[in-house]
């Protein structure tokens, strides 16, 4: 079978990595690149840097990756849908829920694969965590808490930290628990003089009853990417910066210290850091997108899922404005 002809629009800070991986994935041939801003990272190689999505389509592509600023996602994706091109759009799916809904409908009605680049799902630590939770190793899941904080990335200008980083945590939380959000309540702060929020704190509940908590900011000098899933038998801690997964088991030994035993909770047990293969998340994401286009089994993030994530993010921001919880 001939390789899928791939086009990429956007070769900035994230697009340059898409360019590299598209050249490495079996069954995919990167044949066209477009970016009105040129090639700042010199990744085009022998390909001409085209000026827009129309010229990308004219190159005769089967699949496309959209890695341009969020405010341009809608226009590019709708033109690609009209041209019959299967498309992976970087997260968040769109600037607004209405745009995301139109995009989702456009790809669905044309029978095209529309995917969203929520790359954290493909992090090896979270993939292993999801597998173990699904296998029942944690028992009932009670709570999922995430912390995602670090310095402001100068490349982000058109969205706040909720859509840029918070969308990762909302997507991965619903995916790990296999349950959509039922409610969200959030606080935001604006501390760095930019138009959009740079710090959020959110709490919520999934339809399954799992309680969730998210701390996300661009105001910390340290970088942290942690997901903690607490349940009946202990807690999993996934560090997506390193790809490590650790399990803290509930203790099984009777306590003989009276001051401690009077607490009717769990006790400290064994701690295990798991060993498992760690593949680059972006490569795994592209392989999933390729497989979806070929009609094979895949784990790509659909536009429907990307839209639901954006709806929760918008709900978080609405809650911060009104001081009221938002239900779905």
Main beta sheet: 9 strands, mixed
Q: Could you give me the name of the CATH homologous superfamily of the largest domain?
A: Dihydrodipicolinate Reductase, domain 2
Task: Tell how many strands the DSSP assignment holds.
Answer: 15
CATH topology of the largest domain: the name is Dihydrodipicolinate Reductase, domain 2
If you compute it from the alpha carbons, what radius of gyration comes out, rounded to the nearest whole angstrom?
Answer: 21 Å
Q: Report strand %.
A: 25-35%
Give helix % range.
25-40%
Tally of alpha and pi helices = 9
Distance between the termini: 44 Å
Structural class: alpha/beta
Shape: globular
Compute the number of structural domains: 2
Mean pLDDT: 94
Name of the level-1 CATH class of the largest domain: Alpha Beta
**CATH architecture designation of the largest domain:** 2-Layer Sandwich
Query: How are the strands of the biggest sheet laid out side by side?
Result: 14-13-12-11-7-10-9-8-15
Q: What's the helix-strand series?
A: EHEEHEHEHEHEHEEEEEEHEHHE
Low-confidence region ranges: none
């Amino acid at each position: 079978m001939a390789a899928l002809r791939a086009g990429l629009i956007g070769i900035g800070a994230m697009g340059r990595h898409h360019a590299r991986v598209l050249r490495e994935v079996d069954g995919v041939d990167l044949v066209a690149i477009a970016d009105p801003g040129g090639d700042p990272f010199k990744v085009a190689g022998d390909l001409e840097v085209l000026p827009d999505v129309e010229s990308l389509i004219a190159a005769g592509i089967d699949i496309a990756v959209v890695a341009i600023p969020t405010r341009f996602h809608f226009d590019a994706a709708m033109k690609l849908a009209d041209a019959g091109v299967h498309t992976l759009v970087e997260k968040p799916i769109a600037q607004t829920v209405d745009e995301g809904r139109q995009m989702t409908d456009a790809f669905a009605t044309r029978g095209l694969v529309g995917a969203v680049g929520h790359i954290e799902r493909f992090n090896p630590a979270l993939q292993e965590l999801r597998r173990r939770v699904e296998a029942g190793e944690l028992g009932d899941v009670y709570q999922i808490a995430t912390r995602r904080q670090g310095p402001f990335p100068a490349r982000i200008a058109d969205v706040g930290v909720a859509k840029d980083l918070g969308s990762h945590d909302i997507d991965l939380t619903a995916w790990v628990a296999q349950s959509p959000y039922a409610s969200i309540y959030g606080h935001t702060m604006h501390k760095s003089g930019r138009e959009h929020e740079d710090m959020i704190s959110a709490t919520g509940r999934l339809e399954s009853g799992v309680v969730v908590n998210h701390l996300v900011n661009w105001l910390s000098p340290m970088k942290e990417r942690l997901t903690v899933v607490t349940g009946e038998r202990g807690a999993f801690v996934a560090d997506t910066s390193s790809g490590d997964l650790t399990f803290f088991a509930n203790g099984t030994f009777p306590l003989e210290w009276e001051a401690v035993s009077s607490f009717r909770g769990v006790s400290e047990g064994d701690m295990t850091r798991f060993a498992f293969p760690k593949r680059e998340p972006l490569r795994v994401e592209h392989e999933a997108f390729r497989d979806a286009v070929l009609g094979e089994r895949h784990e790509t993030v659909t536009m429907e899922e990307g839209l639901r994530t954006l709806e929760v993010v918008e709900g978080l921001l609405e809650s911060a404005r009104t001081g009221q919880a938002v239900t779905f």
